[in-house]
């Protein structure tokens, strides 16, 4: 067993707040853009769709039949039948990805001139719509980091494994899309390294403020990077912040106020746990594994497994050729969505403080029947608008009142599993006067309450992915 | 769907601290004892062991074969094969109870003379060694409280279901013995009722201080009562406590100090989450359901399913005849242990503050691979002493240094499933000077840190059951 004791050391002030309010760092955003376009020119990746029979090592096998690699490694695509007494759809079947191992998604940080910088990586993934996006310092599978393969290979991985070499600032197990993955989780980590470390060309040091600024742009930070950033707990304003909060204004300051412990949220922490205990104990969801090629309402051919309605997603095969420093070639299944989705939080000032409207979501891949998501989260948002199973508040996001949008951008889902899949991410603020009817599946929380629960794994990747885009420097 | 919104109201100060420090309440402990002995004389319950073939409605059926009721209700006893890479035993088989529904365990409270009182119930259970113990106001299964049976029957249940009638003070999902139950959980609730309510003879109002005093006695509070009490978060001393903390001394005051937010614990909250993320991502445990009557190393006859070594537990059948107001008669399987177990927390003052040595436990019935337990927790403590698989610190608890014992009593496990099963509960304080070697499976935490994690379901019933016995009035 690895030794843990030394890792249990005291953590000093993380300096995340100062970094979040620093829009200038070691390099300017102009230099950053030059660096990124150089990276993009260096590392072409060719991705072609292939039939399942053209995927080397991948076969339909097992009982019940699933799509898996002959080595037993990587992941499997399985068939699932779902029955529940919650929500408008009580019975359906779908493919789902099983990948039980827990990987590490991690940022190395280092203080330059007293400001915490994050080491980002320009990384190509086969499913990325723009090939290369900004990734955390490390994206490692379990076989990368356990004794199985000796731990060699990925640069900087040692800082996450050897607690003598870095201070751990964040280390949380967090889930991925539970409508597509069966209880998949990763360790989301941030470590601080005090020694000077040389970095390869495809890495760059930036501040948290610069990362927040970059989330305003479409498909810039990859999903793993956003997932880790969402776990950051900014020091609360007023708490040894040297007046930093005074540098903010407008929306950024409202966000900081929503982190404040001293403010009174609409609902107490006890009431929020009560709401969730009630939901989790009231409803059920039964999962049964069924053969992947015999899923009800799904058509299985050599080119895809697709839903008859075309409203959801398909399983496809791709062939990848990457020419970086070394030539890599592989085939794998991916999930393709027929349209863009929407992830949106509705905000409102209540008791003078910004609250987020959180939704309790039941997905088959959840570890708990209910996890907490954004106000609206639909992979097929545009298609269900006006339908009976359209989610509450969808219309508001599709037709937002003038001046209500606080954030809007396209962001991609994980390019290692999703093929060209992007979602519209929206923060929408209702006026304090607006009387909103809140269904019992939704609950108002402050950012402080969200952060307190988030570290324990209550929030979905959809929610965390928008929370990562909160820009405390915005006005 | 039930309406939730009204339940999400603000909760006032709970008054738990004042109640915990009140050793006198509406009735004295002398009156309490008279009441209990009257109850005991009223409600005889006869329990006889019967062969499985003598249990009405229960059969070995299904594929794989398990022990279940023909109605499909109640619970099933199933066979499980376990493989893991953690701990001294890497492979074993065992029976386990599956009871997927979430019940309610709840106390009604009411303020008399400004002091919060808990409504206890004298309740007989077939497995209780002394037939009748003190139970929470309500112990309800899901079919008791959902529309299925109309919700009638149990008194006081309406206060837990109708959020207009009571203030919710505690509502948390908490687990039961994960070495015997597969992911079983209950809602642990405490509600405050402001209206006057008449109570039947078998109920009584007592203060939290009186309950704490009663935990010093063997087999007085039942497991469900202790489980709910462990979820109480006392107001932190100094926080609007009107100098209440000054009324404590000695060990009671040390316990209160350990709840203090301002004190520095040995390990930061981040470090504790990191330790747990690391464990949860490093190890695996695979469960396979196997026929109950073909478990490796277990002998299945008509009278029991028992382990060949006799070291663990057996599944048996019992017939129950209860004569209270109405005559009840039923048969059911139960678990019988061949000896008493031990649950113990090792304490030590570190940085001038009491810390608890917490162990990360991997049980097959855990929802997460690792949950947090007491320093030592073994159902067969005396039998493994000196053996290779004896747990760390067991010897310390079996041979405690003079003057180190802060608490010691026998407490029973749930009498609805366990037959005459009691454990030794021990709090043992090492001197501040003692140099203890702490294995990487263990971690020091303050009571404040334990309470912060406990509400999110991190702690095992074994840990919660001792934590419920902390007496803040002890000197």
- Major β-sheet profile of chain A: 7 strands, mixed
CATH architecture grouping of the domain at 269-285 and 340-467 in chain A: Alpha-Beta Complex
- End-to-end Cα distance of chain A, whole Å, is 49 Å
User: What would CATH call the class of the domain at 269-285 and 340-467 in chain A?
Assistant: Alpha Beta
Helix content of chain A: 10-25%
Count the helices of chain A. How many?
12
> CATH homologous superfamily of the domain at 269-285 and 340-467 in chain A - what is it?
EvaA sugar 2,3-dehydratase subunit
Number of strands of chain A: 25
**Beta-strand percent range of chain A:** 25-35%
Task: Describe the oligomeric state of these chains in a short phrase.
Answer: homodimer
Structural class of chain A: alpha+beta
In one word, what is the shape of chain A? globular
Q: What's the Cα radius of gyration of chain A?
A: 22 Å
CATH topology of the domain at 269-285 and 340-467 in chain A: Nucleoside Triphosphate Pyrophosphohydrolase
Mean pLDDT of chain A: 91
Largest interface: A-B, 46 and 47 residues
* Unreliable residue runs of chain A: 1-11, 147-151
């Amino acid at each position: 067993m690895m030794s843990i004791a030394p890792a249990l050391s005291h953590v000093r002030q993380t300096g995340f707040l100062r970094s979040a309010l620093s829009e200038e760092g070691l390099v300017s955003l102009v230099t950053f853009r030059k660096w990124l376009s150089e990276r993009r020119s260096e590392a072409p990746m060719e991705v072609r769709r292939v039939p399942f029979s053209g995927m080397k090592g991948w076969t339909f096998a097992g009982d019940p039949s699933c799509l898996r690699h002959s080595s037993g490694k990587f992941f499997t695509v399985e068939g699932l039948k779902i029955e529940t007494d919650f929500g408008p759809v009580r019975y359906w079947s779908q493919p789902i990805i099983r990948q039980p191992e827990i990987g590490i998604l991690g940022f190395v940080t280092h203080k330059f001139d007293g400001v915490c910088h994050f080491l980002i990586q320009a990384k190509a993934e086969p499913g990325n719509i723009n090939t290369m996006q900004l990734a955390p310092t490390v994206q490692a599978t379990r076989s990368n980091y356990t004794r199985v393969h000796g731990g060699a290979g990925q640069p900087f991985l040692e800082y996450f494994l050897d607690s003598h070499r870095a201070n751990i600032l964040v280390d949380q197990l967090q889930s991925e899309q539970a409508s597509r993955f069966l209880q998949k989780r990763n360790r989301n980590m941030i470590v601080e390294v005090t020694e000077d470390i040389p970095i390869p060309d495809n890495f760059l040091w930036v501040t948290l403020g610069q990362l927040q600024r970059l989330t305003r742009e479409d498909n810039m930070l990859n999903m793993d990077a956003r997932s880790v950033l969402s776990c950051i707990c900014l020091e609360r304003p007023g708490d040894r912040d040297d007046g930093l909060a005074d540098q903010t204004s407008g929306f950024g300051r409202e966000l900081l106020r929503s982190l404040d412990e001293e403010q009174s949220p609409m609902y107490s922490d006890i009431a929020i746990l009560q709401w969730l205990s009630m939901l989790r104990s009231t409803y059920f969801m039964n999962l049964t594994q069924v053969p992947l090629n015999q899923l009800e309402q799904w058509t299985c051919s050599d080119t895809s497994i697709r839903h008859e309605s075309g409203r959801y997603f398909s399983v496809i095969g791709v062939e990848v050729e990457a020419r970086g420093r070394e030539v890599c070639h592989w085939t794998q299944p991916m999930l393709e969505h027929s349209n863009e989705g929407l992830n949106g939080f509705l905000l409102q000032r209540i008791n003078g403080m910004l609250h987020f409207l959180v939704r309790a979501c039941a997905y088959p891949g959840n570890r708990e029947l209910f996890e907490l998501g954004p106000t609206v989260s639909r992979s097929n948002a545009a298609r269900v608008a006006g339908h009976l199973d359209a989610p509450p508040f969808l219309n508001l996001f599709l037709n937002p009142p003038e001046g209500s949008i606080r954030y809007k951008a396209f962001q991609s889902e994980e390019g290692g599993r999703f093929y060209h899949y992007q979602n519209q991410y929206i923060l929408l603020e209702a006026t304090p006067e607006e009387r909103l009817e809140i269904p019992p599946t939704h609950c108002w929380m402050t950012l402080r309450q969200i952060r307190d629960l988030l570290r324990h794994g209550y929030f979905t990747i959809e929610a965390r992915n928008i929370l990562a885009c909160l820009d405390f420097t915005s006005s």
